[in-house]
Write a structure and sequence with these properties.
Elements (H helix, E strand, L loop, with lengths): L2 E5 L3 H11 L5 E5 L2 H10 L4 E5 L7 H11 L4 E5 L4 H9 L4 E4 L4 H16 L5 E4 L2 E4 L4 E4 L2 E3 L3 H12 L4 E3 H9 L7 H17 L8 E4 L3 E4 L4
Parallel strand pairs: 1-2, 1-3, 3-4, 4-5
Antiparallel strand pairs: 6-7, 7-8, 8-9, 10-12, 11-12
Length: about 230
């Protein structure tokens, strides 16, 4: 299920968007301000943001710019302003698309689907989960923007878990996926790497015990919604 973060200072608009998108299988997170949206993105994984421009305190353009400082999540700007200069401004600040009010719901849905398809095939390989940032290009793992020093195998393990939440991996399967030819490696190698990964995440302040679980007699799994 894809998650969409809705950002609008009007409760009615948030409710209408959620009411329309939810039947299509989207989980909708609601935020009434730019600052609240930024906080949510630190703790929740969003696949796309629908961001209203005209908001008090922090407008959509500023919010878009700040989101781009910490995340590459796709952003659709939503506004009653249709002037070319405003469209260009939003795109310069990092928006991916622009929809003007009043909009036709099928058009918005089509734009969402097209943007998700486009970004799913992007070369950019970053994952975000409750403050964690896994960056395949730089081979870095961060928690709340602080780098966690981990080995390449530990990095590959956490990436596999983040990409496949709730899936149970046996030790043999992990050895095959991460080590490839593991004829000279035994199961204790996996246990050691998992133990080290847990300790490093715990030391960084991430609540790893709420998410990385041992399935006794089988292997390990990552739970996303604890």
């Amino acid at each position: 299920m894809k998650t969409i973060l809705l950002v609008d200072d009007e409760t009615l608009m948030l409710d209408l968007l959620s009411l329309y998108l939810s039947p299509y299988g989207y989980k909708c997170l609601k935020s009434k301000s730019g600052m609240e949206a930024l906080q949510l993105l630190c703790i929740e994984k969003a696949d796309l943001v629908i961001l209203d421009v005209m908001m008090p305190e922090m407008d959509g353009w500023t919010t878009c710019k700040k989101i781009r400082e910490v995340s590459d999540v796709p952003i659709i700007m939503l506004t009653a302003r249709s002037e070319t200069v405003d469209v260009i401004k939003g795109l310069k600040y990092g928006a991916d698309d622009y929809v003007t009010k009043p909009f036709h719901e099928p058009e918005l849905l089509a734009r969402i689907e097209a943007l998700l398809r486009r970004t799913s095939t992007s070369k950019d390989q970053k994952l975000f989960f409750k403050g964690l940032e896994w960056d395949e290009d730089s081979v870095e793992l961060k928690y709340e923007y602080q780098i966690i020093p981990i080995t390449p195998k530990e990095f590959a393990l956490i990436g596999l878990f983040l990409k496949n939440p709730h899936r149970v991996y046996s030790r043999d399967h992990l050895l095959s996926l991460i080590w490839g030819d593991h004829s000279h490696i035994d199961d204790r190698t996996i246990d050691s790497h998992i133990r080290n990964l847990r300790e490093k995440l715990r030391s960084a302040g991430f609540p790893v015990d709420n998410h990385l679980f041992t399935v006794w007699g089988v292997g390990y799994k990552w739970i996303s919604d604890n």
